Amino acid sequence: MRKRVALLFVVFGVFFAISTGCNGFSEEPPSKVSNANSSKYKIGVEEKSSISEGVAGQLPKTQIKQYPDLITAYFALQVGDIDILAYDENVLTHTFNDSMSGITFIENDVGVPNEFVIAMNKHSSIPDLKGIINRLIDSLNAAGTLTELNEHWNKNSKTNPLISTKESESEQVLRIATSADVPPFSFTSGNQIVGFDIDLAKLLEEKLNVKTKIIKTDRNKLVSALKNNDADLIISAFTVCECLQHEIDNSKPYYIGKTAFAIRNDFGKEATLSKVPKMTYLEPKKPDEIYKLADLSGKFVGVQTGTTLDEQVQQLIKLPRIQYFANIPEMTKALEERSLDGIAVDYSVAESILKHHSEFSILKDRLNKDEFGIAMSKNSPLKASIDSCISVLQKKGEIQKIKDKWSRNKSAVRSIKQDWIGSDTLIVGTEALYAPYEFYQWGEISGIDIDIMYTIGKMLNKNIKFADMNFDVLIPSLVNEKTDLCIAAMSITEERSSLIDFSIPYDKNESVIVVHTPKHSLEVVGDSTGVLSHIFQKIQDWF
């Protein structure tokens, strides 16, 4: 039966390739770009870009195919949908690194411009915004600052000593849209968006004495963000396109790059699926065909902003399209609506999600294991006593009992109540959107972390007051002494430890990917909930 199914897929694949024009590469590889000025060649470019217009002007006979982003165009090159990929050389080499082994560059002997500009909202509330930015670019060029920025990020550095970290005190906010998917200009590293363009935004903040707000936006929605007045600027390796000149304004170029034209090393040979990333737009797969991490290559994976899961996803999945969400419920809804192919969460959280979503499953392939700690400010006097409490609770098995209470109990359970009067009060930051660790039920914060914190509070004779906030502001709340502790299933990392201190680990959990259930179950998590539990859950939902 499986052989018959495989044969059907092969037949369908051949039919699909023919019907979409994927007939393999042209026979002869061009030795230089000017030789590609023929109808037998297909060149892939980014849509609405200066490279797209430049190729059309310089190579009028060639077939041009436009793609929304570099990753999609790169996949098209790999499967033979195009013969040549035209893109900025700097971005191309930084995006794929080791994956470039199967790519050869041909000589660029035509004048295809590639200049990055700052795009502006024509209706910005800031007077003379275009003039201000152009004058700033002139001054940064004269001082050699833009050249230094370029050299810095070409070395794959993470932080830039040239850029001040001081926050502006101005009330005026400059909203800057970026796609965070074009290294070294704007990309994610750890939990932050960094790069040449982000440093340029910081220079705008410093020189113009305004605050900047970086808005992560899908690349094909950047222009819409300006037109809808959701952003004031685009700084995202953005190029001038004449087709947009009546819709947005553009600054002078702040970067002049080299357009690279790439072909596959085995040009002229039939593209084989073994060499192709599994989840390309040319090889569409239904969500129920995702069986392992490799099947998520090139697909949309959701992670929560501020967590370490984006790094894990990038390490273990080839070229994932990471989408960031403020909280787990929003991310779960996106998976439910199939706008995501998978979501990355901790295993206990995945168990909680699956209790209410029978159409989901957990991939058997795991990400990494994390250790959770209670966070506190540097050199906090609470560290020794918190560590001591956790050690005692672990030896007595109390933490495991709390985990079992929230993870294995089929019926709804309540959190520990404070039945003591402490000597003083500890303000504890959390984000109550991460069941079973912290979440709301019956109008009160509940969960594993909440019970652990109350238990420690009783041991220390402290009142516990929880402050519910977004996950990405938990650490700043400690640094600015707005909270005494934070407990939110927060992973202990070197990057975070440079800013704050952690207790000894109170829990260990592995990270997993949740997807739609395939025809054959991937992993069964516990038993299905009973009728009584279902009734309790309905009551909770009402509240």
Summarize, please.
With about 550 residues, the protein is of the alpha/beta class.
The number of helical segments is 17
On the 0 to 100 scale, the average pLDDT is 80
Outline type: globular
What structural class do the secondary elements suggest? alpha/beta
Strand content: 15-25%
Helical content (DSSP H or I, runs of 4+): 25-40%
Oligomer description:
single chain
How many β-strand runs?
28
Radius of gyration based on Cα positions = 26 Å
What is the rounded distance between the termini?
A: 49 Å
For the largest beta-sheet, the strand count, sense and barrel status come to: 6 strands, mixed
Low-confidence stretches: 1-26, 272-288, 524-543
Protein described:
The chain has 543 residues and is of the alpha/beta class. It is 32% helix and 22% strand. Strands 5, 6, 10, 11, 12 and 13 form a six-stranded mixed beta sheet that branches. The longest helix has 18 residues. The N terminus and C terminus are likely disordered.
Helix-strand layout with pairing:
Elements lengths: L1 H18 L22 E5 L3 H9 L4 E5 L2 H10 L4 E5 H8 L6 E4 L8 E6 L8 H14 L2 H10 L18 E6 L2 E2 L3 E4 L2 E3 L1 H13 L2 E6 L5 H6 L5 E7 L9 E2 L4 E2 L2 E6 L35 E5 L4 H8 L4 E5 L2 H9 L5 E5 H10 L3 E3 L6 E4 L2 E2 L6 H13 L2 H10 L17 E6 L2 E2 L3 E4 L2 E3 L1 H13 L2 E6 L5 H6 L5 E2 L7 H4 L3 E2 L4 E10 L14 H12 L1
Parallel strand pairs: 1-2, 1-3, 6-10, 6-11, 15-16, 15-17, 21-25, 21-26
Antiparallel strand pairs: 3-14, 4-14, 5-11, 5-12, 5-13, 7-8, 8-9, 17-28, 18-28, 19-28, 20-26, 20-27, 22-23, 23-24
